[in-house]
Specification:
The complex is a heterodimer. Chain A is of the alpha+beta class. Chain A has 8 helices and 5 strands. In chain A, a hairpin with a 2-residue loop joins β3 and β4. Chain A starts with 20 loop residues before the first helix and ends with a helix. The relative contact order of chain A is 0.11. Chain B has 4 domains: 144 residues, Aldehyde oxidase/xanthine dehydrogenase, molybdopterin binding domain (Aldehyde Oxidoreductase, domain 4); 178 residues, Aldehyde Oxidoreductase, domain 3, CATH 3.90.1170.50; 152 residues, Aldehyde Oxidoreductase, domain 4 (2-Layer Sandwich), CATH 3.30.365; 208 residues, Aldehyde Oxidoreductase, domain 4 (2-Layer Sandwich). In chain B, α8 runs parallel beside α16 and α11 packs parallel to α12. The longest helix of chain B is centred in the C-terminal third of the chain and has 24 residues. The radius of gyration of chain B is 26 Å and the shape is globular. The chains are: A alpha+beta, B alpha+beta. At the A-B interface, α3, α4, α5, α6 and α7 of A face α2, α3, α4 and α15 of B. The complex binds FE2/S2 (inorganic) cluster (2 copies).
Chain lengths: 214, 715
């Protein structure tokens, strides 16, 4: 993180914001007020106040475990898991390649299963365990799949790589790595524009055949 | 590692990437991942019309939305000092005037304190336009093409000699526009450190170029701009210039007085950061009955925008690929109401080679000669264009190696003669070539007291493995283990290096690293005095002389050899394809790519680069095409769901073979580039294999099933 700046820092770190009960009641009252007095609401909307009102109750609590550590956050219901990881928690290992569920760059594990984090709202993983690429190695000891990607050069630019590795681990866990053909099919949700596919297949096969736990 | 291993490396041959660990652990930070203090988020609103002007912008609702800090457009944009001095034909000057020049032209930018808020507020901006009639179709307007510059035409002998030859082919070929689509979306984080000081974390193929361009546009001294770009998630030519979104983010940061992060959407990537231009080509090629070329006539018309004259010269390949006494090439451009195209992997030759190598294949069938034999009959021993000898050309070796690997002797000359598991099987081949340039580069090498070597230069690495190559060269030259070497790159404060484009980095930067290491060794020799070991214990020597470090900075550039030789890298692509006789689906069965690009420095990354280029070439051959609905002038398939790049299931194992003969006429390393030749020729190889399998010649890429099946003919 860069720090040499004297500009004001907005507090967008969600961890610290704990909604007090009173705050919640205030917001609830606001919702009720809007609901019961449509005339006021309309007037507010005319004055473009609707956005301001929305702001008052737009965050929700989210408790989850990320890479083994518990997090209690306040997030907007519209925030994707991907943006929460990258923009709020500085876990930028998970990549954005399309934001539309079409490339696989944002693949993470939720309760051990591969999930496209750009199509997952943060609030959908409340109470779940999320593993990102940052949580795959055990300290300095790389996960066998990370080792295999290094050894077989399963990447060039490295941007699709976290997603590929998370998918590759899941691919073996799911039992979908029994042949080269099967690996190719079950890894086709992860695009690599650098074209590392044959090397990725080699890496997965080696890990699968090595029999180490993934 | 013996030479044989380098001819045919496996995925585990040689050293692994020096930055690989950072990439597999998610620690490598790309442009958008620098969450600097006080960060805000910019989201662009782009035009929904194709040509015209902005009548009004209603941004009140957006301005009122929570977290919004500014809505910027031409109506309120601060004065950009360098804009007035930009030439008439220049990249889009964002927020400069009310003109709309293409569908997707950025009109406003919303800045808010979170990404979600900026994105939502952007949806609230209402823009009204005065719409004008647009023209976006190349095919309907070929007559309007013009020569972009004086030397767009080339003549050798009689331009029409081909037409009177005993055997001739005359055909048109279409290369659709293709998008680079690197996995990393173009992104920038921009910060003003003072009124005249800017720092950016940016996706760029050249930190020095980006630095000087930003300085020019904003009218501040070059040294006041800092550009960081240590990791780049692919680019393929798409990040060789400063695009309007980069300027927008810098403007935004000035307005809100806080850093701005701007990441394009995948849809923006199809309109706002260039693409390979849609190009129409016509080739006339004539030969004697025994297959000696008489003449080639190759004309190309590529699309460009109305605001820039982008020309890549696809026809030029026909000047020098074959020994042919008569040649004519012309490259024209046609201005359309579209965003500007730009350099994309193998720019020019990729498009031109598809046409020329398809035409050569057509000729081989007319002559009933094996396509390789036809190529060898017309093999150019010296450069037909300049008459100069080649600095190094071992293309015959490449044909031989590739033919053996793919099993070319099993090919049948008669199309449709072979089948495999009920699919039609065909063999295809194509050559490829790209100029082997060497650019000026400066490298600093510093030996520290603990024996660590630091090597520095301002190059970017978009993926091929520049650091790995540089560390390999340094380790070998200095005689120290790679673990003792650190390579610094991607920072404009470092010594000058060229942009990572045009397959020049190993030749330019690799040579500079080699020279800097030799200069450093020389300095150690001077310390030790005569007769010291060539590769001494550097730490020991420093200790003996009580020195904290020893450093050199070396400038390097191409030598006088550039005037003596024609310098190129070469490749040959071999494929076998399977075509489903009922559906017309094409599958790659086997792929072998042979590179004749001098000495191989880093076998593992070289192999990956060849395979990666081949895969992009397979996309070009079979699936990739940007489709514009000309009624609206809009790209209709601006997403990965609709524009198909190859996925894992499309790609078989690929053999990457290397001739691995050093070319010391180019540089002291004997190494030449291979990023472009990896792709150039692949589309023709696939098209030629499809013909061999089916008897159907597809002259308009991509080769989609509908072009092969007219129910009943393929059976
Ligand atoms: S970013 Fe999620 S699938 Fe592309
Ligand atoms: S490594 Fe660059 S996209 Fe896969």
């Amino acid at each position: 993180m860069e720090n040499n700046n004297n500009l004001p820092e907005p507090d967008t770190r969600p961890d610290v914001k704990d909604p007090s009960r009173r705050d919640f009641l205030k917001k609830s009252a606001l919702i009720t007020a809007v609901a019961l007095t449509p005339a006021h609401a309309v007037k507010a909307a005319e004055k473009h106040m609707d956005e301001r009102i929305a702001e008052a109750f737009e965050k929700m609590p989210l408790s989850l475990e990320i890479n083994g550590a518990p997090h209690n956050l306040m997030v907007e219901p519209r925030s994707t898991l991907l943006d929460i990881l990258r923009e709020q928690l500085d876990l930028t290992g998970t990549k954005k390649g399309c934001d539309l569920g079409q490339c696989g760059a944002c693949t993470v594990h939720v309760d051990g299963h591969r999930v496209i984090s750009c199509l997952t709202l943060g609030i959908m993983v409340n109470g779940k365990k999320v593993t990102t690429i940052e949580g795959l190695a055990k300290g300095d000891q790389l996960h066998p799949m990370q080792e295999a990607f290094l050894k077989h050069d399963g990447f060039q630019c490295g941007y699709c790589t976290p997603g590929q590795i998370m998918s590759a681990v899941a691919c073996i866990r799911e039992g979908h790595a029994n042949s080269e053909h099967e690996i190719r099919e079950y890894m086709s949700g992860n695009i690599c524009r650098c074209g590392a596919y044959p090397n990725i297949v080699n890496a997965i096969q080696e890990v699968k055949e090595g029999g180490l736990p993934v | 590692m013996n030479d044989k291993t380098l001819n045919k490396p496996s995925s585990t041959t040689g050293m692994s990437r020096v930055d690989g660990r950072l990439k597999v652990t998610g620690q490598a930070k790309y442009a958008a991942e620098f969450n600097v203090k006080g960060l805000t988020y910019g989201v662009l609103v782009c035009s929904t019309i194709t040509k015209g002007s902005i009548r009004s912008i209603d941004s009140k609702q957006a301005e009122n939305a929570p977290g919004v800090l500014a809505v910027i457009s031409h109506l309120n944009c601060p004065k950009i000092l360098g804009y007035p001095a930009e030439p008439a034909k220049a990249p889009i000057k964002i927020f400069y005037d009310d003109k709309i020049l293409y569908n997707g032209h950025p009109v406003t930018m919303v800045i808010a304190d979170t990404f979600e808020r900026a994105q939502h507020a952007a949806s609230l901006v209402k823009v009204d336009y005065n719409e004008e009639k647009h023209i976006t179709s190349l095919k309907d307007n070929l007559n309007g093409a013009v020569a972009p510059h004086d030397d767009a035409e080339y003549k050798r002998g009689d331009p029409n000699a081909w037409a009177t030859a005993p055997v001739k082919v005359e055909q048109e070929y279409i290369q659709p526009s293709e998008v680079h689509n690197p996995m990393e979306l173009h992104a920038i984080v921009a910060r003003w450190d003072a009124d005249d000081k800017i720092t950016v974390w940016d996706k760029t193929q050249g930190v020095k170029d980006t630095q000087s361009n930003i300085a020019r546009i904003f009218g501040i001294p070059v040294e006041n701009v800092q550009v960081h770009s240590k990791f780049v998630g692919g680019a393929f030519g798409g990040a060789l210039q400063v695009w309007q979104h980069e300027v927008a983010a810098i403007i935004g940061a000035k307005v809100v007085k806080r850093p701005v992060k701007l990441m394009l959407t995948r849809a923006d990537m199809f309109t706002s950061v260039g693409y390979r231009p849609l190009t129409w080509q016509k080739i006339g090629i004539g030969a004697t009955t025994d297959g000696k070329l008489v003449g080639i006539n190759h004309q190309a018309i590529g699309q460009t925008s109305t605001y820039e004259d982008f020309a890549e010269g696809p026809a030029d390949v026909s000047r020098q690929l074959y020994d042919c006494p008569n040649a004519y090439t012309s490259n024209k451009i046609l201005s359309l109401d579209v965003g500007s195209p730009t350099w994309m992997r193998g720019p020019g030759p990729a498009t031109g080679t598809f046409a020329l190598e398809s035409a050569m294949d057509e000729l081989s069938y007319l002559l009933n000669i094996d396509p390789i034999e036809l190529r060898l009959k017309n093999y150019a021993e010296t450069d037909p264009e300049s008459g100069k000898p080649f600095s190094g050309k071992n293309l015959k070796d490449a044909y031989k190696m590739g033919a053996e690997s793919i099993g070319w002797h099993n090919r049948q000359q008669k199309p449709g003669a072979l089948t495999k598991d009920g699919w039609l099987l065909g063999y295809g081949v194509s050559g490829g070539t790209f100029g082997a340039d060497r650019e000026p580069a400066t490298v600093k090498a510093i030996m520290l007291a603990d024996g660590t070597l630091i090597v520095q230069t301002a190059v970017s690495d978009i993926g091929p493995g520049t650091g790995t190559m540089a560390v390999s060269v340094a380790a070998e030259t200095m005689g120290i283990p790679v673990e003792k070497i650190r390579f610094d790159l991607g920072d404009s404060a470092l010594p000058n290096a060229p942009q990572q484009g045009g397959s020049t980095i190993t030749s330019s930067v690799g040579s500079a690293v080699y020279m800097a290491c030799n200069a450093l060794k020389e300095k150690f020799q001077q310390l030790i005095g005569n007769g010291g070991a060539d590769k001494p214990d550097y730490a020991q020597v420093l200790k003996q002389h009580n020195l904290p470090k020893l450093e050199v900075s070396v400038d390097s550039k191409a030598g006088a050899e550039v005037d003596k030789y024609a310098m190129y890298s070469w490749s040959v692509h071999f494929v076998t394809v399977l075509v489903n006789p009922l559906t017309g689906v094409v599958k790659l069965d086997k792929v072998t790519c042979v590179a004749d690009s001098g000495r191989i420095i880093s076998p593992k990354t070289a192999r990956s680069q060849i395979i990666g280029g081949a895969i992009m070439g397979i996309g070009m051959a079979l699936t990739e095409e940007t489709v514009i609905d000309h009624r609206y002038g809009k790209v209709m398939n601006a997403s990965f769901a609709d524009y198909h790049v190859p996925v894992n299931a499309d790609i078989p194992q690929i053999e990457a073979l290397f001739v691995n003969k050093p070319d010391y006429n180019i540089n002291p390393l004997g190494a030449k580039g291979m990023g472009e030749i990896a792709l150039i020729g692949m589309a023709a190889a696939v098209a030629n294999a499809v013909y061999n399998a089916t008897g159907k010649r597809v002259r308009e890429l991509p080769i989609t099933p509908d072009k092969l099946v007219d129910w009943g003919v393929v059976s």
